[in-house]
Each structure stands twice: as C-alpha cells, then as structure tokens.
Amino acid sequence: MKYIFMTGGVVSSLGKGITGASIGKLLQMHGYKVTMIKMDPYINVDPGTMNPFQHGEVYVTADGAEADLDLGTYERFLDMVTTKANTNTAGHIYQTVINNERRGDYNGGTVQVIPHITDEIKRRFSAFEKKVDITIIEIGGTVGDIEGLPFIEATRQFMLEQKREDVMSIHLTLVPYIHGANELKTKPTQHSVNKLREVGIVPDMIICRTEHTISDSMKAKISLFCNVTKDAVVEAKSCSSIYHIPESLHKQGVDAFVLKRLGLKSKKTFSKEWFKYVKRVNTLKDTVSIGIIGKYADLKDAYKSIDESLKISAMDEKLNIDIQYISSEDKNLIKKLKQLHGILIPGGFGIRGIEGKIAAIKFARENKVPFFGICLGMQCAIIEAARNLLGLKDANSTEIYPKTKIPVVEMLEEQKSIKNLGATMRLGNYEANLVKGSLVHKLYKTDKIVERHRHRYEMNPKYIEDFKKVGIEVSGFHKNILPEIIEIKNHPFFIAVQFHPEFGARPTKQHPIFRGFVQASKKFKKS
Ligand code: GLN
C-alpha cells in the first residue's frame, strides 16, 4: 500500500481535492486502484448541520455520512463510491478517543494529543489497507493552522514509520501575480514550505496554483529555495474545465514522478480515454439556459454536485450550458424564469424562499417548461399541486408550517420522537421500485434503483390517489409505500425526486434524469 499526502499552503481553496483527485485519476489510468481520504481539521462531528454559506454543499456518502463537498470531486474523478471511511473530522477523532477513554481503554493513563489523537488519525489513514494500491490523503486547511497541527504531526509520524518508497508528500501553494511589479512571486511558497519543514515534513513535490505560466527560471528558483528537484515543481494554471487538470499534470510528468518516487511501474498501457472524453468540452455549439432556483444564489458551491451533473449531461448532449442561480426571493423571479429552457429546484431546509419556489414550479407546470425538482424541490412541487390543482389552499409541509391542517409533506411517525438535530434524517442509499410505463422507468431503463437520500420529511401517501386524479403520478416507491418520485404525464418533462441524483453523476457516466432534463431543455429551446 502506498500513501500520498496532500497539504496546502498560503491560502485555502487552492483545490487540493481537485489536484489530489487528478493525480489519483492519472494513477488509475496506469492501472492502479486508488482511493482518497479527507481529513478535515474542524471540530464538527456532523458536517450536515453546517451552514452551506460557509462550507458549500453537504455531500452524502453511500452509507449515509454527511461530508465535505470534496468527496464529490473524489467520486466524479475516480468514479468511486465514498463511505464513512473516506471522511474524517477532528470531531470524529476526538469523539473516538474520548469514548475509548470513557470505556477505560487507556488504563488511567493521561490522554494526550500525542500519542492518542495522532494514533487515531494514523489508524484512519490506513483504513483502506489491502483494499486499494494507493491512498491519497487530503489534509484540509492550510499549513500553519492551529487546528491542523495534530493532522500534520500524525502525517510526520506516519511518514517516518513507513518505508520511504511507500509514502510521499505533495504540497500545493499559491504563486500570486503582482500587477504593479508585473511579476509572479515565489516568496509565499518559500514561506509555506518552510512552515511545513518546521513541523517535520519535507515535500517531495510542489504544485503551484497560478493564473500565469511559471517560467523555467522560476521553477529553478522554487526548486532551490524549497529543496525539491526541478522536475518536482509543477504548474497548476487555471483551466477552462477542472476535468482537464489530469492531462495538464500528465504533460508535466507528474504521474511519472509519483510512480518513480513510490517505486511503482505503470501496470498497463496508459489509457488516454479520459483525456479524449473531457476534450469534447471544446467542441460545443448550442447553449441551453437552466435556472437553479434556490436559497444560496450567490454561492454556487452550495449546489456543486448539481452544477457538475448538469455540465456533464450538457457535455454529452454537445451543448454549452448557462447555469443561472436565481434566488427564490428575487423580485423579478417570473421575468427571469421566462428566459430559461429548464427550471431546477434543488434541495434545502427551512422556510425561507419557499413561496418563490412554489411560484416557479407553477410557472414551469403551466408553461410546460422542463422541470426537475430535487428533495425539497419535490416537496414544493407537491405543495404547489395540492394548492393549485386539488384546490387545497392551506396545503403545506409540516417543516414549513407545523400546524398545517393539510400536511401533504410530513415526517414519518418513527422520526418524530428524535430530538437530536443531526440524527433524524433518512441518509444515504435507499432502494426504489420504478413504475413501468413511467418517464423515469424509460430514463433509467431498469425496475429498481438505488439513490442517496438526505431528508426528514416525506410525501404523505394519503394523498396519492387524489394527486393521480389531477395528473400527478407517483412513479417510484420505497418498499412499495413511500413515494420517491412524482411526474406529470401531460407535460414534456416534469420530474421531482425525494433523493439526490446529483451524487450519482460521473463525467464518464451521466445520470439518467439529468440527461432527460437537459435533452428536454434542448427540445424546449427549439420549440
Ligand atoms: N428539508 C427537507 C427535508 O428535510 C428537504 C431536505 C433536502 O432537500 N435535502 O425533508
């Protein structure tokens, strides 16, 4: 088993996840089995309760962990399925150590960061021992952060304990461009590498995020000051699509360097399929406009996987995609909706912006604009239909109005008794049976699907028959009772789902509903 540690310096948000996943992709293309682990230094045990304004989308793993959005990047690049073992926070680690202490596992010894916390971190580093060939570990945050120290220390110990050819360290830094001086600056990189060496880690490779080309002489300077060989100084310039990054790293010999450093040889003829596949981005002509009507219109990261899923489907349909983030509280909502070829209502929590979402769904339904509702999007579609088609003016979800007399969306009995906010959700993979003859059945081409969930409320099955009479049909059920999907037959494309299909799309394998939605939007544009 080989390990690659990815750390970041100078500033956050440099794209450690994307860079690590790109290296992982290249190693896969050489025939290796690769996984990625995220180590998040914050204390939250359950990132699900964190505010998307601060952290972007909450990703959901197949086994129901709520995780950082980097996990989505891992899944999309490496075509893997993440589980709880791929995501760790300082909170998880401290919780485990404290539970061990409560059980008496430490025999009354003093419990300390070194060795108890660092041992637990190291145990989690090797979670995939014997299951894969290479684990890439992304240490969240920036070198020098107080929270990150136990993780960096555990990395140092781990690197010391393993054979030199089994572990390596890659440091991602920023090389900023200073306008006045008209120059790229290497000083922050030097400082950042110094910081890393102070805590005992000597990077084997430095990847420099930059907006401009890094000259050979600049690479030589970084090599000299940071004590890495020149072929280990790599430029990571912003690309038009993140899926082009593996190729850019390959051209600079990153995979060759990593293989050599880890004492590995290419296992098979290097497969360039992925490069060819993502190249199609450059050959697109027509454009469709899709609106995502949600609460976090200013923060695209809050809908990261939806954004990627739409782009992937557009790429397959040879379309450019113009994704517009529109606040459901926008005063010009209807005017903006009129410019769109498809309307998507994403998942969400709480009351804010609900009425705008319901108005957008009414607009899509009545004007036959392709509509795709996800989770809260489906719940809003149910409320809209109940109010405007069944004439139940007071219909609501008990999340939005707990005292509603007409709870068309409700919490299941067994969930009502749970008080702890982080524990009440239906999380992770659940099966659904699709109704033959439905649009979703045609799209998925299968009777049974498994999709990831993250919600507390459900469509109230009591109203299924009433909805059927006005053309709203349930076309997918969990255990033949719980409605998972609704659709309208007499509409070019109106599908809403209780699960999160956006976690299932891959650049090499688009998701059937996203495909159908983008195709319908293309058709709508032409009509
Ligand atoms: N707030 C809704 C629920 O908990 C929807 C959740 C979601 O959209 N992810 O059921």
| Shape label | globular
CATH fold assignment of the largest domain? Rossmann fold
- Counted by DSSP, the helix tally is 19
Mean pLDDT: 92
Residue fraction in strands: 15-25%
Q: How far apart are the first and last residues' alpha carbons, in Å?
A: 56 Å
| Helix fraction by DSSP (H/I, runs of at least 4) | 25-40%
CATH class of the largest domain equals Alpha Beta
The structural domain count equals 2
Structural class: alpha/beta
Q: What can you tell me about this protein's structure?
A:
It is a single chain. The chain has two domains: 2-277, 3-Layer(aba) Sandwich (Rossmann fold); 284-526, 3-Layer(aba) Sandwich (Rossmann fold), CATH 3.40.50. The mean pLDDT is 92. A nine-stranded mixed beta sheet has the order 13-12-14-15-23-22-21-18-19, sandwiched between helices. A seven-stranded parallel beta sheet has the order 5-2-6-1-7-10-11, sandwiched between helices. α12 (304-316) packs across α19 (512-526). The relative contact order is 0.11. It has 19 helices and 23 strands. β21 and β22 (482-488) form a beta hairpin. By secondary structure, the protein is an alpha/beta fold. The radius of gyration is 25 Å and the shape is globular. Helices cover 35% and strands 23% of the residues. Glutamine binds at residues 347-349, 375-376, 399, 454-457.
Main traits of this protein?
527 residues, alpha/beta, Rossmann fold, 9-stranded mixed β-sheet, 7-stranded parallel β-sheet, 19 helices, 23 strands, binds glutamine
Q: Could you outline the blueprint of secondary structure elements for this entry?
A:
Blueprint: E1 2-8, H1 16-29, E2 34-40, H2 52-55, E3 59-60, E4 66-67, H3 70-78, E5 87-89, H4 90-103, H5 113-125, E6 134-139, H6 149-161, E7 167-174, E8 177-178, E9 183-184, H7 187-198, E10 205-210, H8 216-226, E11 233-237, H9 245-251, H10 254-261, H11 273-279, E12 287-294, H12 304-316, E13 320-327, H13 333-337, E14 342-345, H14 354-366, E15 371-374, H15 376-388, E16 395-397, E17 406-411, H16 413-416, E18 426-434, H17 439-444, E19 448-455, E20 457-459, H18 464-469, E21 472-478, E22 482-488, E23 494-497, H19 512-526
Parallel strand pairs: 1-6, 1-7, 2-5, 2-6, 7-10, 10-11, 12-13, 12-14, 14-15, 15-23, 16-17
Antiparallel strand pairs: 3-4, 8-9, 17-20, 18-19, 18-21, 21-22, 22-23
The structure holds glutamine.
Glutamine binds at residues 347-349, 375-376, 399, 454-457.
